[in-house]
Design goal:
Blueprint (H helix, E strand, L loop, with lengths): L1 H29 L5 H5 L13 E2 L3 E2 L2 E7 L2 E8 L15 E7 L4 E8 L3 H5 L3 H8 L23 H26 L3 H4 L4 E5 L9 H6 L4 E6 H10 L3 H4 L10 E9 L3 H8 L1 H9 L6 E8 L8 H5 L5 E5 L2 E3 L6 E3 L13 E7 L11 E10 L5 E10 L6 E5 L8 H21 L5 H12 L1 H19 L1 H6 L1 H22 L6 H13 L3 H5 L2 H16 L3 H7 L1 H15 L9 H7 L1 H16 L1 H7 L5 H6 L6 H14 L5 H5 L2 H7 L22 H5 L21 H6 L6 H34 L3
Antiparallel strand pairs: 1-3, 2-3, 3-4, 4-5, 5-6, 7-17, 8-9, 9-10, 10-14, 11-12, 11-15, 13-14, 15-16
Helix pairs in contact: 1-27, 5-13, 10-11, 15-20, 17-22, 18-24, 20-21, 24-25, 24-29
Length: 752
């Protein structure tokens, strides 16, 4: 055991030296850089345009720098944070240099500065850089390609912020440059004609004619075409993984139509279904019909788990959205004459918050994926364009239209796409963080429901703890099951492990400017923090530490297995134990003090927590981090919840405000502690003083003492009570016997 402690100290020092070296290297490189001028001094223009000869003069409005080859402008480089709020999960900006050509096609993006804790000291930054390479060649003006969802496990929020800030920053730059270039911007913004849906319009008579007239859009892909597309994109491994050996086989026949148009809806859905579906539409909502046949499903199975149809997406004017399961309805058949039988038909409601204009052009983008390994996939997208044909619309002159001068008319066609980007970028009704938060809560409805159910069950256990404690076999099984749920679902599947870094970030945000949207971006973490705060206010920190902490569950379960195999448990004298519990408070106060000076430094020092290594990154880290976590778990085999008792700064942080708890429902008898020490001996964290009272700062609400409180086989008080009752019953029985004997004797001497 002494050897383990020595090795632990050596590895901890090694770990902090490694972390400090990484931090020092990063700080030396970044120092206090924050502006475009400072960053381009460290990044050569050839990183964005290999043929470039250098940068031009930095322009202030809009803030960008042209990239030059001689006198020729190849494109522009700009900083995302100059155009949008790029705050990440830490609340601090994620700064990215973006290089685009003159058509606003991205040439390269480079992460230059961030304060994301999971990337600083967890996930290698190279993984983020590899993810960002996928943006090369994308055009967020004419279309918006689908990013790989949650491509980096554990850094989902960071990746989502990166994606949104790149898209919006490109659109904003395009809009501002267009404004600068236009001599008469008011004329380009007003169309010559206005269009409305013509409900009385007539459609074609059969399926094929509807396709020919553009009333239905059709995309046909063969297996060979998809193979070639993967190959052209440089994804050769995916190109060799075919759904069929015959390249002529149909990969997918994909069809779509806007069936909120009355004429199309009645013909394709039938009068009854159209009336039913359209009657539920709110203002500014639309209906889109999607049908598919072939080897590839446009629905997939992701929507069953996450509530989102991740294989198809609607894109319009540089923005896009996925369909969600709550807005989905299955359709049996398409009613128009000549329509084929389809394997999949779906009717989707497009809600107002998608900001979809049914009169404008839009794309239905199909995301094709092929598994290239046990946990890896390659993706490629195909577009199915759609626009309501003019014969289904009514056309009228726009009274506000003013004919542009000839020079402007020549350029108007070239500026149409950028004008669309201007509208998208200039009318942003919510921040990036708020949008990501809203999307995350909508996407994770199933996860939210499961976690909510688990939290309600935990509240029920606390509220009715006497009943549970009286049924000890059932309760022990329930607790083991709950700890397994916490470890494998909350920790293993969701990676939702709270950390002292969250506490430091929260307190820092109170000083620097609080914004709920930063904390709402990860629904699972937010819900766990709410549950932890609620539990601490009513009881103490044990609601989290004893039930909802994946690493705590891992320690308790591994220790239980060790006990089953007869591993002898080690207990310090209570005086030593009591002094050691102060260590975690000292660690927390040191981290808190460092966070007031430098939050980044405190985040690095918070590696005293093994949570990221064991739960979030699942031991996929450098060896000192892994060794540190494994040694803590090894010690925990001999000292139950060793880390929780003596080292956990998060537990210390939660214990301090838990002093304000409203209830203390843990019951004690007069004999507890004097003379009985049963509860104190069996408490998994030694949170019971020898005198018998409970140390609420250390209690993890496992309710083991309450099980003993109601155990008539082990509780001294109950055993004494039972003994008293037995003695009383025996005395009463003897008295009754004597009385009966006396009465019998009296009857013998005094016969009637």
């Amino acid at each position: 055991m002494k050897t383990l402690f020595c090795v632990l100290i050596v590895i901890l020092l090694n770990l902090f030296s490694l972390s400090h070296a990484d931090m020092a290297e990063q700080k030396a490189y970044l120092s206090n850089l924050s502006t475009l001028e400072e960053f381009i001094a460290t990044v050569p223009a050839t990183e964005f345009f290999p043929e470039a000869e250098g940068y031009g003069e930095v322009q202030k409005n809009p803030h960008q720098v042209p990239v030059l080859k001689g006198q020729e402008v190849l494109g522009y480089v700009f900083l995302n944070s100059d155009y949008v709020n790029s705050g990440g999960y830490s609340g601090k900006p994620i700064r990215i240099l973006i290089g685009v050509d003159k058509e606003f096609v991205i040439r390269a993006v480079k992460l230059v500065k961030h304060s994301e804790p999971i990337v600083l000291i967890g996930i290698p930054e190279q993984k983020i850089n590899d993810f960002m390479k996928q943006y090369s060649g994308r055009n967020f003006i004419s279309q918006r390609d689908i990013p790989v969802p949650e491509v980096i496990s554990g850094a989902t929020v960071t990746v989502m912020v990166i994606n949104e800030t790149i898209a919006r920053a490109v659109q904003s730059l395009a809009a501002q440059l267009q404004n600068e270039a236009q001599s008469s911007p008011q004329t380009a913004a007003v169309p010559e004609f206005l269009f409305d849906i013509n409900a009385e319009a007539a459609t074609a008579a059969n399926w094929q004619e509807m396709i020919a007239k553009g009333e239905i859009a059709h995309l046909h892909l063969s297996v060979g075409q998809v193979n070639q597309a993967f190959s052209d994109a440089g994804k050769t491994q995916a190109a060799g993984i075919s759904e069929s050996d015959n390249p002529e086989d149909t990969y997918i026949d994909l069809y779509t139509a806007l069936v909120s148009h009355p004429a199309l809806g009645k013909v394709l859905l039938g009068d009854a279904l159209y009336q039913q579906a359209s009657s539920r539409l709110k203002e500014n909502e639309s209906l889109i019909l999607v049908a598919g046949e072939g080897l590839y499903s446009f629905k997939g199975s992701g929507y069953v788990r996450g509530g989102i149809f991740d294989r198809i997406k609607v894109e319009q004017d540089g923005a896009g959205f996925h369909f969600r399961d709550r807005n989905h309805r299955r359709v049996g058949d398409i009613m128009v004459a000549g329509a084929p039988k389809f394997k999949e038909i779906a009717l989707f409601t497009v809600t107002e918050d998608n900001q979809f204009n049914p009169l404008n052009h839009w794309n239905l983008t199909l995301l094709s994926n092929r598994a290239t390994g046990a946990t890896s996939k390659e993706f490629i997208s195909f577009n199915l364009p759609y626009r309501l044909p003019e014969h289904l619309l009514s056309k009228r002159a726009n009274p506000d239209y003013v004919a542009p001068p000839p020079a402007a008319a020549e350029n108007s066609a070239e500026k149409t796409e950028v004008s669309a980007a201007q509208n998208t970028a200039s009318v942003q009704q919510e921040s990036i963080q708020a949008k990501i938060a809203r999307d995350a809560w909508q996407r994770k409805t199933v996860h939210i429901a499961i976690l909510s159910t688990a939290l309600v069950l935990l509240i029920a256990i606390f509220m009715f703890q006497d009943w549970f404690a009286q049924h000890q076999v059932f309760y022990k099984r329930l607790r083991i099951a709950y700890l397994c749920f916490t470890l494998f679902w909350i920790g293993g599947y969701l990676g939702a492990q709270l950390s002292v870094v969250n506490v430091l970030t929260f307190t820092n945000s109170l000083i620097s400017g609080f914004d709920w949207s930063y904390f709402l971006m990860d629904p699972m973490i937010f819900m766990l923090w709410c549950a932890t705060a609620f539990g601490a206010l009513l009881w103490n920190r044990g609601a989290f530490c004893g039930w909802l902490c994946p690493f705590g569950a891992l320690q308790e379960l591994t220790n239980a297995v060790a006990k089953k195999f007869g591993v002898k448990q080690i207990k310090f004298p209570f005086r030593v134990h009591e002094r050691l519990t102060a260590l975690k408070y000292i660690i927390f106060l040191l981290l808190f003090g460092f966070s007031l000076y430098d939050l980044g430094l405190a985040e690095h020092l918070s590696e005293v927590e093994p949570f990221k290594t064991s739960i979030i990154l699942k031991f996929q880290r450098a060896w000192p981090y892994v060794a540190f976590a494994l040694i803590l778990l090894a010690i925990g085999l001999f000292i139950e919840r060793f880390y929780c008792r003596y080292l956990c700064p998060l537990g210390a942080a939660l214990a301090i405000p838990a002093k304000l708890r409203l209830f203390n429902w843990l019951k004690r008898y007069q004999e507890c502690g004097n003379p009985c020490q049963k509860c104190a001996q069996e408490c998994p964290v030694e949170a019971i003083f020898p005198e018998g009272n409970i140390n609420e700062n250390e209690c993890i609400q496992c309710l083991n003492c309450q099980v003993l409180y109601h155990d008539k086989q082990r509780c001294m008080h109950l055993l004494l009570e039972i003994e008293k009752q037995q003695k009383y019953a025996a005395r009463a029985k003897r008295n009754a016997q004597r009385l009966a004997e006396n009465e019998a004797a009296v009857g013998v001497h005094n016969p009637v």
